[in-house]
Design brief:
about 190 residues, mainly alpha, 2 domains
Amino acid sequence: MQIKKFYRQEYFLSDKIINRQLSAMARTVAGRRIHVSAETLNRAELHSIVIDLVDNEFLNLEEIEEGLLFVREKRYIEKGIGEAISALPTYKFREFVSELMQSNSHYQKWLVHQWRRISGDIEDKYEGDPDEGDPFALVVFMDEESPRQLRVIIMDMARESTPIRNWLKDKLLITHESGILELRYFDEDPPTET
């Protein structure tokens, strides 16, 4: 009840939306617990569990194939995004990341949280409010402090979030009808104002 009250007051959300979000969070937590439990099993134990699930009709081969296809596509997209981020000129990288932060207010807080986990000195060095201040200024600060670290965090966020992954895919990659992804190329130097 306290969580619902918080969301209602902070974000002015309806009960229906809050219930849907809480349900999604619960599924995510349950999924992570299952994933952590599964990581402790060896390959033979996992194999045995999957066979048992199929045998008892809790899982079918089509679902397994769909899961494999999803994982392959996800990895292919992540690989393309990783290559694109590495190839991006600094000005374009900063532009895209600040635009990503503006697309959802929670992304900037997530980015700052991840940055704090790796190097907890943002409050000492950054002038302004990192959580809600100017996203472009924040991205420039982080990119000057540690360009590699910022790129790693953005890649981690893309791995964990389908909306971020899709957003970056649309901005950084060209998707051909065949499904092949191609890097978008940008000028090395920012356009000069005339």
